[in-house]
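Figure 3 (text version): C-alpha cells given as input.
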C-alpha cells in the first residue's frame, strides 16, 4: 500500500500537466456580447468553449464588474469585444485584474469587432459630455445587422486558426458553412420586412441604426433626448408633436430601458410600441444569432401598421 501511495503521488504532477496541455483542452473564447459567443461557438465547433460576460437583457454599457468575470478572463484564450467605448465603463478593470497578457489590447488573443466593420454615426467636431453618451469612434451596435454577423464569423475563423494552426481548415470550413446559411436567412428576413422599407419610426436609444439601414427604416426621432439621457416631459411633448405631424406609428425599444416614457408616447400618439431584443438572449425566442433575427422579424411582421 505504501508503494502504491508513493507511486500515486509521483503521478499527480504528471496528470496535472497532462490535464492542462492545450492539445487536450478546448479553446476558451470569452466575449462581451452574447452574439459574439454564439458565432464563436458555431465557428469553433467542438474545439471551442464560448461564453459571454453579459446577458442579452442587459444594457451593455453598464455591467457589474464581478469577480467571476475576472476568473473567466483569466482563463480565456481569446477575447472578442465590440470596442468603440461600449464596454469602457466596466471591461478595463476586469482585464487588468485578469492578469492575462494574451487577451490585452493588441495581444494574440484579442479581437476588437469594430475594427472589421463599416461604422455609422462617427461624430465630427468637438465631443463633450453635454452631447450625452456619444461614442467618438462610431455607433457600436453593429451586430443588429446580420450582414455584420458574416463579417465577424470570417474574422473569428481566422483568429482561431492563428491560435490553433492545426485546426485552421476546420474553423474555415465551419465559418464558410455558417456564412452561407446566414446569407440564405438574411435574404428571407429581408423579404418579410420589405413592407417596412421607408417607414418612419421613433426608437428609444440609437441601438437600431444598423438595423434601420439594413431594413430601410427612417429614424425620425428618439425617446432619449441625447444618448444615455433619460427623457424629460418637455422632450416627450416635442416628440408627440413631431410624431403627429409625420404620422409616425411605430416605436422600437430595447428590453433593458424603463418603459414608462415610451408607453406614454405610444398612448399619446396612437403608435405601436414594440419592445424587441437587440442581442442574443434578449428574449425567449432569441436564443441564437439566427434566433435573434427570427424573433425581430416575426415580432415586427406582427406589429406592422398601415
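Below: residues designed for each position.
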Amino acid at each position: 500500500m505504501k508503494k502504491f501511495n508513493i507511486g500515486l503521488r509521483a503521478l499527480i504532477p504528471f496528470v496535472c500537466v497532462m490535464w492542462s496541455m492545450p492539445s487536450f483542452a478546448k479553446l476558451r473564447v470569452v466575449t462581451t456580447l452574447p452574439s459574439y459567443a454564439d458565432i464563436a461557438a458555431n465557428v469553433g465547433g467542438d474545439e471551442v468553449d464560448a461564453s459571454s460576460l453579459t446577458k442579452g437583457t442587459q444594457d451593455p454599457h453598464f455591467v457589474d464588474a464581478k469577480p467571476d468575470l475576472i476568473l473567466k478572463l483569466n482563463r480565456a484564450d481569446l477575447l472578442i469585444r465590440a470596442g468603440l467605448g461600449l464596454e469602457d465603463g466596466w471591461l478595463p478593470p476586469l482585464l487588468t485584474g485578469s492578469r492575462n497578457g494574451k487577451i490585452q489590447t493588441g495581444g494574440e488573443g484579442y479581437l476588437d469587432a469594430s475594427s472589421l466593420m463599416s461604422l455609422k454615426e462617427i461624430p465630427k467636431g468637438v465631443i463633450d459630455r453635454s452631447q450625452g453618451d456619444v461614442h467618438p469612434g462610431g455607433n457600436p451596435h453593429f451586430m443588429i445587422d446580420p450582414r455584420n454577423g458574416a463579417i465577424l464569423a470570417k474574422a473569428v475563423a481566422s483568429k482561431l486558426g492563428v491560435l490553433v494552426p492545426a485546426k485552421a481548415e476546420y474553423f474555415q470550413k465551419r465559418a464558410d458553412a455558417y456564412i452561407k446559411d446566414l446569407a440564405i436567412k438574411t435574404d428571407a428576413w429581408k423579404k418579410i420586412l420589405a413592407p417596412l422599407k421607408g417607414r418612419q419610426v421613433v426608437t428609444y436609444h440609437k441601438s437600431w441604426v444598423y438595423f434601420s439601414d439594413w431594413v430601410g427604416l427612417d429614424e425620425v426621432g428618439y425617446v432619449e433626448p441625447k444618448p444615455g439621457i433619460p427623457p424629460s416631459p418637455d422632450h416627450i411633448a416635442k416628440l408627440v408633436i413631431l410624431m403627429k405631424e409625420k404620422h409616425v406609428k411605430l416605436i422600437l425599444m430595447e428590453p433593458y430601458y424603463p418603459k414608462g416614457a415610451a408607453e406614454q408616447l405610444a398612448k399619446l400618439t396612437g403608435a405601436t410600441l414594440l419592445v424587441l431584443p437587440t442581442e442574443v438572449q434578449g428574449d425567449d425566442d432569441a436564443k441564437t444569432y439566427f434566433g435573434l433575427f427570427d424573433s425581430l422579424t416575426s415580432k415586427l411582421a406582427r406589429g406592422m401598421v398601415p
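The chain has two domains: 12-188, 190-303.
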